[in-house]
């Protein structure tokens, strides 16, 4: 058996679990969303909704948060997904994402959540970024370029994993605009748009087919995952 065949087998099984079985009203399809972040949970449930998946979060199940010791978004997404899959015996779906600012040498990057502190105060995190940008003289749009990055990972209890990564480029604005979304959304203006993620509805922010090809970093990564692993109900 070649190295490619197991991946195809798991993808076929994943499609069967989250497609054919879910298409029957008598069957329940469960997936653990490996997050304790309410904002991420809301978005990930929205992305999974068309596939008829009964999603429960790690937080709702009382699972502990694993230490994110990885050196990349992919590493940390895998750590979270594998921990949830092993703890529950169910397939688990995890996201690790963050903001990478060019003028700050890619920071906060994988530490994006930590910049908000233990209270998850993203207003404070945005103010910190703005302060650091001003310290470096990054006051014009050309010097305020950034990317949102998302890595999605699905892990099975048998140890198999699939992961996907995507990003969206934009410019950081000040002051923040809008109260939609979460995290750094109010200061992120995606390229080609006049409104920040914080000013967009979730439908507009995701930009999923048939309306679009994916706008947000998480939606773009999810489209890759869905094409490989999911069957729409």
Structural account:
The chain has one domain (4-229): Maf protein. Helices cover 33% and strands 19% of the residues. A 6-stranded mixed β-sheet has the order 2-1-3-4-5-6. It has helices at 4-20, 38-48, 73-88, 122-135, 202-206, 217-229, and strands spanning 30-33, 54-57, 92-101, 145-155, 161-172, 188-190. It is globular.
The mean pLDDT is: 86
Please count the helical segments: 6
CATH class: Alpha Beta
Strand-residue fraction? 15-25%
CATH architecture: Alpha-Beta Complex
Distance between the termini: 32 Å
CATH-assigned fold name: Maf protein
- Total beta strand runs: 6
Class from helix and strand fractions: alpha/beta
List the helices and strands and how they pair.
Blueprint: H1 4-20, E1 30-33, H2 38-48, E2 54-57, H3 73-88, E3 92-101, H4 122-135, E4 145-155, E5 161-172, E6 188-190, H5 202-206, H6 217-229
Parallel strand pairs: 1-2, 1-3
Antiparallel strand pairs: 3-4, 4-5, 5-6
Could you list some keywords that capture this structure?
disordered N terminus; 233 residues; six-stranded mixed beta sheet; 33% helix; alpha/beta; Maf protein
Brief characterization of the structure:
This protein has 233 residues and is α/β, with parallel strands linked by helices. The protein is 33% helix and 19% strand. A six-stranded mixed β-sheet has the order 2-1-3-4-5-6.
